Amino acid sequence: MTGVRCMLMRGGTSKGAYFLAADLPSDPAERDGLLLRAMGSPDPRQIDGIGGAHPLTSKAAIVAPSADAAADVDYLFLQLGVEEPTVSDRQNCGNLLAGVGPFAVERGLVPAGGDRTVVRIRMLNTGSVATAAFPTPGGAVDYDGGTAVSGVPGTAARIDLDFAGTEGSTCGALLPTGRVRDVIDGVEVTCVDNGMPVVVAAASDLGATGYETDLSHLRDRVQSLRLRAGGLMGLGDVSAASVPKTTLVAPPRDGGMICTRTFIPLRMHTSIGVLGAVSVATALLIDGAVGHDLAEFPPPGAPMSVEHPTGRLDVVVELDGTAVRRSSIVRTARKLFDGTVFPRSWP
User: Fold this and answer.
1) What is this structure's pTM?
2) Domains of the chain (ranges, CATH numbers)
């Protein structure tokens, strides 16, 4: 049995396996097959692998030194299917991104920079760049701290993530259809891409309040919305893809800016993805977009608090018209184990 060096990390509200690219097969098909076997897919329990039987815990981050002078490391995110043997690179993951900087220091790709280290990360899925800043007192990553993230027990060290070039990073434009609003299946939506392609719709237009904990009955409607939106957004046939995401919005009820329920792509998210939240917040800032009239905006420059089923996620987005000037967010991450994973031998 041949093992592969692997670090399991929680990044934000996700969990994934982090690998050095040099430790994996260079052929994408061989690499993907190995990762599926390591995760235990396809199997609803992922009982024969390290996956957690949920899309949020069936993820991989592949990290390598960057050949781009604008970045220190390259990060490829792969979403692994649970019940199906699928591997998708059609989206970023801002949650696993939170662990990339610490992982790069742990593996010696980037030297620790004193009490705090800054790592520039090129996100290969879209070509955009993120900057991660996190504590490294004494030259070692410190995962302990007092920052709380909704959906994660306890507290951990603060990781500041700043994004550049995420506007239209997948679809080519912030508003991929060229319109602030579209009508799909009789429902008004706003299609947006500020790091994550998202279809924003009012929960009430789908017969929901937007505060539910179970929206599985909307699965077919959500699938129809995103399939048609995928074509309008220039993504082509998205029937086997995890993007675009669909986010239903409703007026806030816990002091935030907006309340959300997000599907990934058909299963309701227990919170909301980092770049999904950035894209939704960006859309809401645009006059005339779906949800703009439902939002309760904070003072200019203050974080926008996006409510989700397990709490809130604060994001900062600054727009100049429909041009993005800045996007940032605070996350945490934690190393869970570092060692060797032994993928099963059979396909």
Assistant:
1) 0.88
2) 4-158+332-341 (3.10.310.10), 182-328 (3.10.310.10)
